[in-house]
């Protein structure tokens, strides 16, 4: 048996004899098991409910009777986002962003129904998900277990004996590192099980494996930091103080500084302010329900010239439907402009926040975790864009029916003439213009691309701390 393995074996034997270490490990194991089981049960239920609600919304839309197409524009439709399989480990921004959107003409509604119900049911502890435990509590447990790995040899006097007998200081540090890596491997078992559950639920194997590897890197960073401090300082109390300060700074202080910096450096106007500005510009576009609005005079003249007629009643198409389509296109362009500005501001804030990962591996692993799980901000923005595409598609298809299938005269008289109203009803089979919406996570390659930077940063942290361990070991003295 090599020296490093023998040293690691002795370290594990001492840990298992320590009631404090065993108790701490059991507490964390129970927390991970409980939060993992609760998260799995909740998200499985949500996935079934949202899938059923999406099918019910589509069935309700397709089942509408013969009616005027513009009434279907206002009847609207719901789009739901199912939780991705790996969200059982890291729900990411899904905890605070809405998971459904009501799609209707003339409006871009915000996503609704964030996970407030779960938070209420769990007394505010819904945020205590498995990813949070791995990011916050497991490093603390590593500190408790490992802060004295080298100092114990120094305080007991065995360090001088080992070095005097010709034992290499690097071999001693290697053995302690091997013992800590065994702890890390043990900690990774629950995550490996959750990743396997995600794959069984339909997730690609690549992102699941990368998620496990990313958290393995993260815990190895903390193990290297624990070993380096235990090797460099002279007392356990000092080591525990230094490591606790590092934990507080990296896990709590730096993320808060990152949030404040992102808010201060990137201006993101509030919803009320943005809505007021948007409404002032929207009024200039004209009222799409009023074909006589002066904003559409040029459109009317162009159509009259195009078809060589003198009045809108002579047009081969319904001018009211043309106005509805034209107005929706212009309005959607304006709405998309404001929506893109908001999403770009959010993305820039996220980018500023992500730079603080240089001072906190917790931020790095969080960014990689959300990207790989498909619960990051970029995925939420894609959900908003895809639902808007569905909304615009079915609204404009209905406007096209309005323009080509209805008589202008009947359309203008339908509120006072029952027969004209009956003639403006379109056969219900036309509602099939609605695209069935099924949102899925990004392909693995795109998620890998977003996680590559944070994972590389974690590897850099590990390399730097490993070099520090080697430096500290070479300076090791009784």
Blueprint (SSEs and pairs):
Layout (H helix, E strand, L loop, with lengths): L2 H15 L1 H44 L6 H7 L1 E4 L19 E4 L12 H6 L8 H17 L4 H6 L1 H7 L4 H32 L4 H28 L3 H30 L5 H12 L14 H11 L11 H37 L5 H13 L3 H29 L2 H6 L4 H6 L20 H31 L4
Antiparallel strand pairs: 1-2
Helix pairs in contact: 1-8, 2-5, 3-15, 5-8, 5-9, 5-10, 8-9, 8-18, 9-10, 9-14, 9-18, 10-13, 11-13, 13-15, 14-18
Describe the 3D structure:
The protein is mainly alpha-helical. The protein has one domain. The protein is built from 18 helices and 2 strands. A two-stranded antiparallel ribbon has the order 1-2. Helix 5 runs parallel beside helix 9, helix 9 crosses helix 10 and helix 9 runs antiparallel to helix 14. It starts with a helix and ends with a helix. The relative contact order is 0.13. About 2% of the residues have low confidence.
Keywords:
478 residues
The outline comes out as elongated
**Main beta sheet:** 2 strands, antiparallel
Give the oligomer, counting copies of the same chain as homo and different chains as hetero: single chain
Mean pLDDT: 87
Spatial order of the strands in the main sheet? Answer: 1-2
Secondary-structure element series: HHHEEHHHHHHHHHHHHHHH
Helical run tally: 18
Instruction: Show unreliable segments.
Output: 116-126
Structural class: mainly alpha
Strand content: under 5%
- How much helix, percentage-wise, in residues? over 70%
Count of structural domains = 1
Gyration radius, in Å: 31 Å
Distance separating the two termini:
25 Å
Number-wise, the strands total 2
């Amino acid at each position: 048996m090599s020296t490093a393995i023998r040293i690691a074996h002795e370290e594990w034997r001492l840990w298992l004899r320590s009631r404090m270490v065993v108790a701490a490990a059991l507490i964390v194991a129970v927390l991970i098991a409980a939060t993992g089981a609760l998260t799995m049960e909740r998200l499985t239920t949500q996935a079934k409910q949202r899938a059923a609600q999406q099918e019910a919304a589509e069935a309700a839309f397709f089942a509408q009777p013969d009616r005027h197409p513009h009434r279907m524009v206002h009847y609207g439709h719901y789009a739901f986002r199912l939780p991705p399989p790996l969200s059982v480990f890291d729900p990411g921004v899904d905890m605070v962003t809405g998971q459904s959107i009501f799609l209707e003409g003339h409006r871009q509604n915000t996503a609704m129904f964030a996970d407030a119900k779960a938070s209420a049911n769990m007394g505010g502890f819904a945020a205590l998900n498995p990813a949070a435990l791995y990011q916050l509590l497991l490093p603390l447990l590593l500190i408790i277990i490992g802060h004295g790995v080298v100092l114990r040899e120094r305080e007991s006097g065995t360090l001088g004996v080992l070095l005097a007998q010709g034992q290499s200081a690097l071999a001693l540090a290697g053995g302690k590192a091997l013992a800590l890596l065994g702890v890390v491997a043990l900690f990774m078992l629950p995550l490996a099980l959750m990743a396997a559950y995600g794959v069984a639920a339909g997730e690609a194997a690549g992102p699941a494996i990368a998620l496990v590897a990313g958290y393995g890197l993260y815990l190895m960073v903390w193990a290297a930091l624990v070993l380096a401090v235990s090797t460099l300082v002279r007392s356990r109390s000092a080591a525990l103080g230094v490591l606790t300060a590092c934990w507080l700074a990296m896990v709590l202080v730096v993320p808060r500084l990152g949030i404040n910096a992102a808010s201060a450096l990137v201006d993101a106007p509030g919803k009320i302010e943005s809505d007021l500005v948007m409404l002032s510009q929207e009024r200039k576009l004209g009222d799409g329900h009023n074909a006589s609005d002066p904003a559409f005079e040029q459109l009317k003249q162009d159509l009259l010239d195009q078809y060589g007629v003198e009045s809108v009643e002579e047009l081969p198409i319904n001018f009211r439907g043309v106005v509805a389509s034209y107005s929706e296109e212009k309005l959607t362009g304006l709405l998309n402009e404001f929506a893109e500005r908001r999403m770009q501001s959010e993305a820039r804030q996220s980018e500023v926040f992500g730079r603080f990962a240089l001072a906190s591996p917790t931020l790095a692993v969080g960014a990689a975790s959300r990207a790989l799980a498909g619960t990051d901000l970029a995925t939420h923005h894609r959900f908003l864009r895809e639902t808007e595409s569905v909304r615009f598609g079915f609204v404009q298809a209905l406007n096209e029916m309005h323009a080509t299938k209805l008589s202008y005269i009947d359309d203008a008289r339908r509120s006072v003439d029952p027969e004209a109203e009956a003639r403006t009803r379109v056969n219900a089979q036309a509602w099939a213009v609605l695209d069935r919406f099924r949102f899925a996570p990004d392909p693995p390659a795109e998620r890998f691309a977003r996680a590559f930077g944070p994972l590389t940063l974690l590897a850099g942290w590990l390399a730097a701390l490993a070099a520090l361990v080697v430096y500290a070991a070479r300076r090791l003295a009784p």
